[in-house]
Batch of 2 targets.
Target 1
Amino acid sequence: RSKRRGRGQITVYSQEIAQEMKRATQLEQALRNAIIADEVDVHFQPIVDLRNDAVVGFEALARWCDADLGYVSPSVFVPLAEERGFIEALAEALLRKAAQAALSWPRELFLSFNLSSAQLMDPATSTRLLAIVNQVGLDPHRLELEITETAVMTDTGVAQKIVSELRAAGVCVSLDDFGTGQSSLGRLRDFSFDKVKIDRAFVSRISADRASEHIVKAIVSMCEGLELEVVAEGIEDVSEALILKALGCGMGQGYFYGKPADAVTTMRYLSDRYRDVAVR
Ligand code: C2E
Ligand code: MG
Ligand code: MG
Ligand code: MG
């Protein structure tokens, strides 16, 4: 009897796995089509200088809404594109769009773009990215690339080479989601970064939890010594902003300062703040 139930379970599981695989393949096909049809969009979230609350740049965040599947999070479709081997095509389309949008912003604002782990394993990445930025006509000094600790875990040699080539071309490199991955401190020594982005997990608990406040304080002081700029991610209210300012955190980002918005909304936002920015 138990044997039968066991077999039944196996059937259920393999059905679930088959369903899951079918869904992933549907998602893959829809995403491939969306890239070809130019339907994957990019939104922009402001990054502010916490010393004076001025906007200093925007992070580009991929957005995709499929007619049948609805909204799909980039934390789902970016890994899928990596797994199925077409992250290059997706990343290039996104960077081209993002860089194009940044051309209309005031020149002092930077564009921050997320790199995926697969891109950091491919030695051609720096050349490809710089070619796109040049084609579009964006000054590489206005570009920042965000990489995560996990992305530089596997093949540090190639990743280090990519990072140093990009930095040599004037691109800033930041370590994203700091504090959540493994061997964070070792990465800071092995790579030359310009910025560290403290993960939202610490920021979201900073008003309620002394431990998070102490951790952020330690990160800020360590980055001061290493001459790295610190950005706090996921600031959602004024009390979080005030604590971070008091701790000496230089930059911030989060819903409190602005949610990710499309290129047109971003231009409207900028034209309200800059006299010489006009919405076309
Ligand atoms: P990330 O790079 O750490 O981006 C920050 C995420 O936090 C974004 O989620 C953003 O919308 C969200 N966020 C910002 N402020 C707040 C806040 O105050 N509260 C809360 N609850 N969330 C906030 P999103 O857009 O869903 O992106 C998720 C992740 O997907 C990103 O994390 C990044 O790792 C990846 N991703 C997004 N776009 C791209 C892309 O173009 N290329 C690559 N390779 N990865 C991307
Ligand atoms: Mg990021
Ligand atoms: Mg992050
Ligand atoms: Mg919170």
Target 2
Amino acid sequence: MSSPFLWGTASAAFQVEGALSEDGRAPSVWDVFAARPGAIRDGHSPAAACDHYHRWSEDVDLLDRLGVNAYRFSIAWPRVVPRGSGAVNKAGLDFYDRLVDALVERGITPLPTLFHWDLPQALEDAGGWLARDTSKAFADYTAVVADRLGDRVGRWITLNEPVVHMAYGHAFGIHAPGRTLDVPEVLRVAHHLLLAHGLAAAELRSRGLEALLTNNLSPVRAPEHATDADLAAGAAYDALHNRLFTDPVLTGAHPDLSAFGVPEVPGVREGDLDLISGSVDGIGVNYYNPSLVLAPEEGSGLPFALGEITGVPTTAFGWPVVPEGLTETLVGLTDRYGSALPPLYVTENGCSCRDEVEDGRVTDPERIAYLEGHIAAVDAARERGADVRGYFVWTLTDNFEWAEGYHQRFGLVHVDHATQTRTPKDSFARYRDIIAARTAVP
Ligand code: PNW
């Protein structure tokens, strides 16, 4: 029997858990970054988030009511190995053990992500992703978690969106750890993330487990009447955003990064690319929107500039709504990588809306339209030959949206952050009905 298509929702530890200093958890780079004045919009604090650490059972009940057969969540490295390497914190592992048991009991397949940006601060202090040792520490932490949960969890995501962590966290400084490195050092970070993935995948596979890598992908759009310079900028952006963390794992080579003025990626040692090559049993695709890429202004320091996609609806975040871009992404991967491409999973897709509770109800027609459009886009991609095995809505509950704090509400469930009251939105019922219709036994 082939395994069923996975219908789920996705979340991340730091965005929902709270309880940042409970049961032996140590600070992550996000705890420290969020405390910097000005780092988070309106100074919102991640301390409580959705209090999922205490309310996880209520959240699993919500998943049960939604009727999903899968749930993507992330494991907080600083809960399990508080200093990043060395001593293991049993209480941290126990938390995820209980969560996995509760999911499995309800027939919900757990899909954990091992790194969703919350690096233990102790590792950051020792060099963070600029240090090769961090990759090794990640593999050791992976082994610890896999040994504990591998009897119930068969499929794992190593890293979430390494390109966003690299660019926002290490080049632009708008995400933790808030660094603004120059291009070669940013690419060194990229290599250590890829190496971490490769080493962790080897740990998982040696235990008979599957390793997936989740990337944020955004198809490149050129402006009308594009010049050669615009097209060259588009190719440079595509190499950096879409291929830097995909080509090495599928083809064993880096994309052409010559536009960035770096002859080769720093830190790559003999054997590294062999380890990274072919290290995935699935590719996770997080899709939000396409990117309009233009030639840069003189002296901008980057070989591309980003424009604004007009003529389509936008989300509360200002992101353009373009469902066809998801079809294009999934079919594009299929065409580009051919037989080297493993199964695909849409591991995040969703939108933030201006959601307010009125008389106990949250009406979110924009989210319903967004989800219907993007699920149809997945169908279209499958009809065109893309081997898509699952779809996960970002996200179950409104949560801590990184530098935006609680301002962006991506949830199917509204959260009143003052009281932690959860109220399923209209989109929750719509997604429940879509899943029910599609998983009904004839
Ligand atoms: C993803 N962009 O982040 C993350 O995986 C989630 O943790 C996050 O909550 C979600 O998408 C919504 O933002 C992104 O600017 C951050 O293209 C930035 C971008 C895309 C995704």
